[in-house]
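Entry 14: structure prediction run for Phospho-2-dehydro-3-deoxyheptonate aldolase. Input pasted below.
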Amino acid sequence: MSIPEPWSPSSWKSKPIAQDVAYEDPAHLAKVLSKIERLPGMVTPSEIERLRHQLAMVQRNEAFLLHAGDCAESFDACTHENLSNKIGLILSFSLILIWGARRPVVRIGRIAGQYAKPRSSPKEVIDGKEVLSFRGDNVNGLDPNDRTPNPERLLSAYFHSTTTLNHVRGLLTSGFASLHHPRDWSLNHVRSPSLRKEFENIVDNLSDALDFSRTIGVESGPAFEKGGARGTVGEVDFYTSHEGLMLEYEQALTRLLPIPAGISVPSASGNKTYYNTSAHFLWIGDRTRQLTHAHVEYFRGIRNPIGVKVGPSMKGEELVRLLGIVNPEKEGGRVTLITRYGAGKVAEFLKGHIQAVQESGHPVVWVCDPMHGNTLTSSTGLKTRNFGTIISELTSSLRIHAQCNSRLGGVSLEFTGELADDGFSVTECLGGSMELSEDELGLRYQSFCDPRLNFEQSLDVAFLISNYFKN
Ligand code: PEP
Ligand code: MN
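Run finished. Output tokens:
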């Protein structure tokens, strides 16, 4: 085995890079980055280590992972209402899982930093004019006249992330997440009566159980306390994540910090190691996971738990080599594989990937992303996804894992609790128990990136998973 080259937060710069952003003024970029380097980190080593610990529990079948949020956040959507609706949906979804599947749920939001987007083409034609593609609010503007990458947007991304995280931390420590008030998480716009009833049943049963516990004097402590992993943000654990695409930004927030007491880090030479303090969890996208390229190089050196998107073009031996690079010590909780093949391809690829990883002895958490392989264009030209194919990829994944003596540890979803101005849920994906049709898609289509499941369609998915694990 060859000895790995030394790593540093900037060693990725000597490698080829996919999805690079070309800035016109490098001095301006350098100035912004040096400012970000001096700003405080957003998350702490002990929170990051706690998430690693909890992901190791997911891998051992002791908990379930919910990774969810928008395809891309926007600066404009950073409002009290949007963030509260988002957190409300994540809490409702996890309550259904906890209640039905009777296991703790690790919640990681695609939130507080999910701004950058990889694109299939660097340019696009709008109204007959060729412009640079929109790369996310931290790079350029959605407006076709504002497509030149502007470094100031990285700083704005930092501040929008901190504002978001501050609001989320506040919400979760102020009783919003309390199991005594799940109705506050907003069910008003769920139009299917059976779905409402199912959720309300859980809430009623839960209230009874809580009353009973209170009567007999049992304390209701956090579900993870037993594992030495206490809540991150008050009453419930909640973690942040984004795709680690803009490596200059990630590097600026990578800090050499003391390793919390009781944690052993095999690769560390002293009592410090490199943490990426921009989020608890970062993932490598399907377009930037080349073994010898910059993103994999950057990711191998950070201590955070990481995700790797795995699509149909990944070869089994390539996947095992990638695991060898980012997790040479085969540590549990370090790598989550997020598979995204499409309903029509999952049967062809998942089994081979599971078997290759099993033979390698690498511990991983397997997560199904049933969104990204199932995107289509509606007859009216809108980018959409069909609820049926999302469920089909998810149920196939559950079945294939069971057949391979493996286990699906979680789901990765693009969903939103966001409401349109008229107070109704967005209409971006087809089907679900609300039976959203093609002509309804245009009514409240708000995503400027990938289509998201709305509140009601998301609860449908939660019940499906919860029922699977109940049986
Ligand atoms: C995403 O998660 O929004 C995304 C772009 O996914 P992928 O890298 O799997 O295409
Ligand atoms: Mn997406």
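Notes: Confidence is low (pLDDT under 50) at residues 225-234. Will compare against the previous run tomorrow.
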